[in-house]
Amino acid sequence: MIACLIYKMFKINQLCNWGVAYIKLWKCLSALLHFIFIILLLLLPVLIKSQNSQFNYTIVHGGDKIGWLRLEKNKVANSTFLLLVSEIKTRIIFLVAVANKETSVFENTVLIKSTQYRKTNGTVKVNKHTSRIGNKYEVVENGEKQVLSIPVITTNLLSLYFTEPIGINTVYCDKYGCFSKISKTTDGGFKVVFPDNNSNTFYYKNGICIKIKISHTFYSAEIIKSS
Predict the structure, then answer these.
(1) 97 and 45 in one domain?
(2) 93-138, pLDDT tens digit by residue?
(3) Which domain holds residue 91?
(4) What is the pTM for the complete model shown?
(5) For 50-149, where are the E strands, in sequence order?
(6) 3-state secondary structure of 222
(7) Is there a single domain that holds both residue 10 and residue 111?
């Protein structure tokens, strides 16, 4: 293809009929562009795949498996999409089934949108949307709108499932609509204490989250990486 281009350009200087030379050169350029386009289409799945990651976890309570959790991360250009999906089935006094889904979208490391959705025994308990509008964030929950005077969020709780918070002291907790402090524990974890005094402690190995300890007023559980 390149040799063809050079040849056509050389012939332009020799041909008197510039219109014919232009048409021939244009055909050669079109063929080259078509060839490049086909190559990019063939490489696109490989390029996209290299930007995706997925991790699976087991949710354990009292030594028993009570559920599962799946994480997905998709990075396209300057945008990063995070997804958390989980299901829990356990019996306290009666059977409790919880389905949870959380998403976050970052552009150039800035949070622009997040959602939290949770069903308990088939009833929607949480349906919350946070969006960045201008230099503020708008939160919509149960039909009520709230504007947060927070200019920029670069780390939220969901992002801790994917990235070790080295050098980061606070994290935005979408559920509570505020920042919480991150403190290092003696056993190497990163603990986040929420406004209701419940907490999550994240543990990492080679930059990947391998375990989360959940400490709640009424229960405790662990989320352990399985694959």
Answers:
(1) no
(2) 889 999 999 999 999 999 999 999 999 999 999 999 999 999 999 9
(3) 52-225
(4) 0.77
(5) 52-61, 64-76, 79-91, 95-107, 110-120, 123-133, 136-141, 144-148
(6) strand
(7) no
- The amino acid at 189: G
177 and 132 inside one domain: yes
Q: Which positions ≥6 away from 19 have C-beta within 8 Å?
A: none
Task: Assess contact for 150 and 195: CB atoms under 8 A.
Answer: no
- Using a pLDDT cut of 90, give the percent of the chain over it: 73
The structure tokens listed for 85 are 């999906």
Rounded to an integer, the average pLDDT of 83-96 is 92
Distance CA 223, CA 209 (A): 10
Average pLDDT score over the chain = 87
Count Cα neighbours of 142 within 13 Å in the Cβ-side half-sphere.
Answer: 5
Q: How many residues does the chain have?
A: 227
Same domain, 28 and 17: yes
Half-sphere exposure at residue 130, Cβ-oriented, CA atoms within 13 angstroms: 28
Residue 141 pLDDT exceeds 90: yes
Average pLDDT rounded to a whole number, residues 184-199: 98
Q: Is 97 found in the same domain as 198?
A: yes
